[in-house]
Amino acid sequence: MNHPFIQALQQIYPAERLLTRDVQLLPYESDGLTAFQTKPGAVALPVDEDEIISTVRLCHQMEVPFVARGSGTSLSGGSLPIADGLIIGLNRMNRIKRIDPRGRIAVVEPGVINLHITHAVEPYGLYYAPDPSSQSICTIGGNIAFNSGGAHCLKYGMTSNHVLGMKVVLADGTVTQFGSESLDGVGIGPDLVGLFVGSEGLFGIALEITLRLMPAPQLYRTVLAAYDNLGRAGDAVSMVVASGLLPGAMEIMDRLSIKAAEAAVAAGYPPDAEALLIVELEGEALQVEAEFAQLQGVIEESGAFEVRVAQSEEERARIWKGRKSAFSAVGRLSPDFIVQDGVVPRSRLGEALQEIDAIKSKYGLDVANVFHAGDGNLHPLILYDGREAGALERAEALAGEILAMCVDLGGSITGEHGIGMEKRDYMPAMFSDQELEIMMALRRAIDPKEIANRGKMFPGVEAPALQQHGLHPLEKQGVISRE
Amino acid sequence: MRHQIELDALRAPEMLEPIEKCVHCGFCLAACPTYDLLGEEMDSPRGRIYLMKNVLEARIEADEAQPYIDRCLGCMACVPACPSGVEYGDLLVSYRALQEAERSRSLTDAVTRKLVCETLPYPQRFRLAIRGGKIGRAFATLLPDAFGAMLSLLPESLPAPMPLPAVLPAVGERRGKVGLLLGCAQQVLAPAISHAAAHVLAANGIEVHIPRGQSCCGSILLHVGAEDQARQLARGNFPLMPDDIDAIITTAAGCGSGMNDYELLFKGEADAERARAFSRLVMDFSAYLASIGLRPPPGFAEERVVAYQDACHLLHAQGHQAEPRALLRQVPNLRLVNIADAGMCCGSAGTYNIDQPSIAAELGKRKVAAILAAEPDVIVSGNIGCITQMRAHLNFVGDDRPVMHLAQLLHQAYSEGD
Predict the structure, then answer these.
(1) pTM (predicted TM-score)
(2) Predicted confidence band of residue A214 (pLDDT cuts 50, 70, 90)
(3) Given CB atoms, is A332 within the 8 Å cutoff of chain B?
């Protein structure tokens, strides 16, 4: 990495918080998507916002690209380093600065772990609603960058519905405030909070975030229904929605993902199910009980061969533990796999599942399906053995066909994992050239030197279409490598 | 993760499977004490796996990665936290043993290690060393940090030995027959633990055999990568245990989990089958008692508030979360309170408080703060290392409430009502 830049960083950071040796940098070369590896030029670990601001200004001044990184759990390569760029590791920016139980807000730093917010506000009967499966370790900063969702976003919305305001440093070094502490405040002028949330780190770094807290549900009713066919479980989702219920979460797991989760955490799922539907009702006790009676009727009619209701908090936790560990648990079934993330309109779920079935037979690969059925967010996990010649190419082609299908059915190429590094190539499938041009113009207006998370999201000049095995050009140039 | 590592057939499965299974998801970071404290990828489980992989692929020098591997407590909190089922412990133990032969150590480091390996596992030498330590303490400021840390953990005086008979007969109807391992350092530092365990077992109708001439089980050596010496000591115990016993009982969490790893330690050795048979019989005191069902003790005259501190090698490595608590709940007039962050290591971790004094001290400080917040009358654990660490850190904050082994508290619960 260039010396003047490192020397300037040394003015900001003590030696122990500025990592420059290979042995320190290598563990940062991947996030949750190990298909990509890029060794960064340096890693800086700021502990206060002044350090972050000085660092971003320095990067802007010296035109060094940077990537803000929390816990490095992105599944789309969103926090993949840039070769000779800087990683700004925000995990030590982990203070919860203020909790206002009456106003139901919390003011936090970007490195605070999602679940820690709930732990901190529990004594006040409150919680932070968005619950990505990695909530025990993923940070709010990353949740904001990728507008993270989770099982319970069906009822409460994604991260963007829970960020009221934020202080940010934009990529050109400008420090500014978006939104306010009240829900109404967001309505004045353009919704800049909304613009920043989900921008995948292309605009800058959130320094201080005001989050909305929700009253903790008084009562949960978690129902596990087992079906002998996947389509029937999909139909059950439509039936629940048609009945007028809005559960906190509705999740489906197919046979393979059930098997993986069972191996990982012994969740006690019915062993012979082809598909499991998890429906969770939550809220005030009276309402939940009324809804529960209604739900039982619907599930009964849906043709489930076994229905279980969690009888204790422990049983509920076990049902969710299985679901939330499903992605990583697939590592037990297959040496390699690709986690996909796509969306189809909920009404076309059955159609999409049949289509995936047809596609996978064509490629001769297994696909495990785990999805947020309530909002049509699919997570096909494509299993392959990388040691087998051509298997990766087949898996990627299969993944591509599934995404194309999502777009064809009127859905989206990502529900919550983001575009990051992984899906840049599919952007043109969803957006016209003009639309992409508008997005890029907006990006350049905020980050004229394109230093913030350069190379992500856009299939662009410095980061052209993925090419290895027909997909990742940066690999050909030796900038990144695939395991 | 995919890799380009070539290893001999003996090492390959234990080392390559964890690397292949790791998907780098990061779920382990939340469970890792050093990541929590230091906040760097290199000091996290997935970071260490990545570093070990890179060393084995010859992308980086082993010496470069070593400080980060050394900082691992080996607490195994990452193992149950891992959805992919990565056996981190197998990788770590094998890696440490593989590197031990080649690594270069500073003189102080080498001397400390030698001292640990040559005294701790041998009760008589250890007893002598403690006496020597008293003299050493006077010169502590002149010595390197590692020695200072060693000395500060040594007790001021040693308890008198509490000899046990070769066989302690079962009280009442005989429900089982076990062999009891006395442990090495534990015999010297706290002979009362084995004494209490033997009597609690007997009170529960168990005939307890306490063979003479026991050696260290080798776990502490396995922890520091001294495989040959570990095997040699472990072998000493094989012929001692009677053939018809139901279980070999240990009262030290670290010993129990180390002996569970005998299959790995003895892989390819002539007596591998013997080691496996021994290993299969090993059970922690709490797990064995819970499995046979506790005879109700008379309990305490006045309410006693107890905080149970999980030893990592019971909780994470052996999965005994419920058993010790279930035993405590059966004691009349005993109220169990929870310690926040119960799964977080106290920093004792075998020889860790000698190797990494500052991290160990920070973890000890945090643990004691969490314990005191729960306001117990007495603190109970299942491991001598944790007990020593908590005693030391309670002393630092001027708190003198008792810390004892689960067996000792149960022994009181049986004796007090007599």
Answers:
(1) 0.89
(2) very high
(3) yes
Outline where DSSP puts E strands in B190-312.
206-209, 247-250, 282-284, 304-309
Distance CA A89, CA A95 (A): 15
**Residue of chain A minimizing CA distance to B63:** A23
Question: Which residue, chain included where needed, has tokens 């004229």?
Answer: A448
Strand partners, A206: A168
CA of A189 vs chain B CAs: smallest distance (Å): 39
Chain A residues in contact with B44 (beta carbon < 8 A)? 27
| Tens-digit pLDDT profile for residues A397-454 | 999 999 999 999 999 999 989 999 999 989 999 999 999 999 999 999 999 999 999 9
Which residues constitute the domain of residue B303? 296-415
| Three-state DSSP class for residue A125 | coil
Asked whether the beta carbons of residue A22 and residue B64 sit closer than 8 angstroms, the reply is yes
CATH of domain A334-419: 3.30.70.2740
Touching check for A51 and chain B: CB below 8 Å?
A: no
Q: What is the mean pLDDT of chain A?
A: 90
Beta strands in A32-145 (DSSP E): 42-44, 66-69, 86-89, 96-100, 105-108, 126-127
Nearest to A23 among B25, B65, B82 (CB): B65
A338 touches chain B (CB under 8 A): no
pLDDT at residue B101 greater than cutoff 80:
no
Among the partner residues B23, B39, B60, nearest to A23 by beta-carbon distance? B60
Beta strands in A53-123 (DSSP E): 66-69, 86-89, 96-100, 105-108
The CATH number given to whatever domain includes residue B367 is 3.40.50.10700
Domain boundary among B291, B310, B345: B291
The answer to whether residue A123 neighbours chain B at the CB level (below 8 Å) is: no
* Mean pLDDT, residues B19-28: 92
Tokens for A421?
């590094």
Alpha-carbon distance A80 to A68, whole Å?
A: 10
Residue B215's nearest CA partner among B231, B198, B234 is: B234
Say if strands A219-227 and A306-309 run parallel, antiparallel, or are unpaired.
antiparallel
- Helices assigned H by DSSP within B7-144: 12-21, 33-38, 45-56, 62-70, 78-81, 88-100, 107-119, 123-138
ipTM value, please give it. 0.89
Q: CB of A27 within 8 Å of any CB in chain B?
A: yes
Interface test with B, best of A13, A20, A23 (most B CBs within 10 A): A23
Determine, for residues A331 and B23 on separate chains, whether the beta-carbon distance falls below 8 Å. Answer: yes
Q: pLDDT tens for residues A271-320?
A: 899 999 999 999 999 999 999 999 999 999 999 999 999 999 999 999 99
Q: Of 3.40.640.10, 2.60.40.10, 3.40.1190.10, 3.30.70.2190, which CATH number belongs to A219-328?
A: 3.30.70.2190
Tell how strand B176-180 and strand B206-209 pair up: parallel
For residue B83, the chain A residues in CB contact (below 8 A) are: 264-265, 325-329, 331
**Does residue B67 lie within any of the structural domains?**
yes
Calpha distance A32→A77 (Å, rounded): 7
CA distance B161 to A267: 48
Mutation site for B-interface testing, chosen from A34, A93, A117 by largest number of B Cβ within 10 Å: A34
For residue A462, name the pLDDT band (cuts at 50, 70, 90).
very low
Q: Which residues 6+ apart lie within 8 Å of A87 measured at CB?
A: A28, A40, A42, A43, A44, A66, A67, A69, A79, A81
Q: What is the maximum alpha-carbon separation in chain A?
A: 70
A83 close to B (CB below 8 A): no
**Interface check A460 vs B, CB under 8 A:** no
Is the Cα dihedral B315, B207, B402, B351 positive or negative? negative
From the list A72, A113, A331, the residue facing B21 with the nearest CB is: A331
In chain B, which residues have their Cβ closer than 8 Å to the Cβ of A328? 23, 25, 27, 82-84
